[in-house]
Amino acid sequence: MGKEKTHVNVVIIGHVDSGKSTTTGHLVYKCGGIDQRRLEKFEKAAAQADVALLVVSAAKGEYEAGVSRSGQTREHALLAYTLGVKQIIVCVNKMDLSEPPYSQKRFDEVVRGVSGFLKKIGYDPTTVPFVPISGWTGENMITATQKMPWFQGWKVRRREGNSSGRTLLEVLDSIHPPVRTINKPLRLPLQDVYKIGGVGTVPVGKIESGVLKPGMTLMFSPAKLTAEVKSIEMHHQGLQAALPGHNVGFNIKNVAVKNLRRGDVAGNAQQDPPSDVSSFEAQVIILNHPGKVKAGYSPVLDCHTAHVTCRFAELKEKLDRRTGKKLEDQPQILMSGDAATVKLVPIKPMCVESFFTYPPLGRFAARDLKQTVAVGVIKSVDKDHGSKPTKAQVFK
C-alpha cells in the first residue's frame, strides 16, 4: 500500500450472513492492517459510495435465501444502482462451504443467477467482475487460489480500458475513481453532527461537489443557518482544502449541535447556496409495491443522507420504462413495474436538487413496508424562498 492512491469509497453490501464483515476484516488484516480509522464504518449507506462490493454466499441454501423475493441481495444491488453506484464487484464468498468445497458448478450457478438480476436492474454484466473467495480462509483474496484450479480469472470490459486478474485485491486495485465535479458549487450532505469537548460543533459528511475551505461561510439547508468553517479534518489530519469524494469532519463557529441534523446540506453561502424545496417533480419506477399507488401515497424517501416522508401529490404521467415515452396523462393508479412522472411534497423541510445539476442530491429510493417500493430521479425542484436564513445565535 506504499503509493498514494486516489480516494475511492466502497460500500459492502449483501444478504445477512453472506460474510461481509469476515471478508472485509480478513482483507484489511492481510493488507497489513489498513489502520482502523480508514475503515470507518465500511457498511455505511450506499449513498456515500463510488463502488459496491456485493458479497454473495455460495454455501448451500444461503445463495437461494439471499436472492429470493424476501432476500436482501437484489434489494441492495438495486439500491446501489439507484443511488448512482456505477461500478459493482461480485464476491462469491464461502466457496469453502459449497458442496463439494470449491465447486466450479456452484460458482457458475451463482454467476448465472446474479448476472441475470444485475442485468434486469440496469448493470451490464460484462463490466462486473465475479471473484470466488473464502473470507474465512482467505482463499483467492490477496494471492491467487490453489484450491480452485478451474478459475481462469476475472475479466471486465470498461470504457476506460479492459482489465483482468485473479484475486479480490486485484479487482479493488482496478477500480476507476469516478469523475468528481470540483468546478460546481459546494454540496455537502451531513451524515452526523458531533459535539466535541474543547472543539465545539463538528458536522461530518462526504463532499459531493465543490471545494470546502477553512474560513468559508456555509449555509445549511433546511436548517436555514449560516456559519463559518474554522477547520477541516479527514482521517484525523487537518486539511486546507477538501475536495469531492472526501469524507470530512469540520468545525464551525457558534452553532449548537441541536440545530443541525443528518440530512441537512451545507453549501457556500456566497455561491448558489442550497435551499429547501416546497415540492419537486421526479421520474419514478414502482418496484415491488403489493397494491396500487394513488395520489396521496406517502412513503419515506432516502435521498443523499436525508430520510423524509414525502407525499405523491400528483401522478402526472405514466411512461414507458424503456423509452421514456408518455403512455397516459394523469393516471389514477400506478402498480409494480410502472414508470411515471410525479409531483412529490416533503412533509417536513428537506433539501434536494435536480439530478441534472447535482446528481448525488437528485436520486432517491422510496421505502415502505420495510422494503424499497420505488426509485427515482428528480427532474426539477420548487425552491422554498419563504423565509430568510438566520445568523446562528451565539451559544455561550
What is the topological layout?
Blueprint: E1 10-14, H1 20-30, E2 51-57, H2 62-67, H3 72-82, E3 87-93, H4 104-121, E4 130-132, E5 154-156, E6 163-165, H5 168-173, E7 188-196, E8 200-206, E9 217-221, E10 225-234, E11 237-239, E12 247-252, E13 265-268, E14 277-286, E15 300-303, E16 306-319, E17 326-329, E18 339-346, E19 363-368, E20 371-383, E21 390-391
Parallel strand pairs: 1-2, 2-3, 3-4, 10-21
Antiparallel strand pairs: 5-6, 7-8, 7-13, 8-12, 9-10, 9-13, 10-11, 10-12, 14-18, 14-20, 15-16, 15-19, 16-17, 16-18, 19-20
Main location: cytoplasm
Pfam family, one: GTP_EFTU
Protein name: Elongation factor 1-alpha isoform 6
Question: Which class of the largest domain in CATH terms?
Answer: Alpha Beta
Helix coverage percent of residues?
A: 10-25%
What's the average pLDDT? 85
The string of secondary-structure elements, in order, is EHEHHEHEEEHEEEEEEEEEEEEEEE
Low-confidence stretches: 34-47, 389-396
Largest sheet: 6 strands, antiparallel, barrel
Features:
GTP-binding; Transl_B-barrel_sf; mainly beta; Rossmann fold; Elongation Factor Tu (Ef-tu), domain 3; 21 strands; protein biosynthesis; GTPase activity; 396 residues; globular; 5 helices; GTP binding; disordered C terminus; 6-stranded antiparallel beta barrel
What does this structure look like?
Residues 200-265 form the Translation elongation factor EFTu-like domain. Residues 42-176 form the Tr-type G domain. Belongs to the TRAFAC class translation factor GTPase superfamily. Classic translation factor GTPase family. EF-Tu/EF-1A subfamily. The chain starts with 9 loop residues before the first strand and ends in a 5-residue tail after the last strand. It is built from five helices and 21 strands. It has a six-stranded antiparallel beta barrel with strand order 7-8-12-10-9-13. It has a six-stranded antiparallel barrel with strand order 14-18-16-15-19-20. It has helices spanning 20-30, 62-67, 72-82, 104-121, 168-173; strands spanning 10-14, 51-57, 87-93, 130-132, 154-156, 163-165, 188-196, 200-206, 217-221, 225-234, 237-239, 247-252, 265-268, 277-286, 300-303, 306-319, 326-329, 339-346, 363-368, 371-383, 390-391. The protein has 396 residues and is mainly β. The protein folds into three domains: 10-174, Rossmann fold (3-Layer(aba) Sandwich), CATH 3.40.50.300; 187-268, Elongation Factor Tu (Ef-tu), domain 3, CATH 2.40.30.10; 277-383, Beta Barrel (Elongation Factor Tu (Ef-tu), domain 3), CATH 2.40.30.
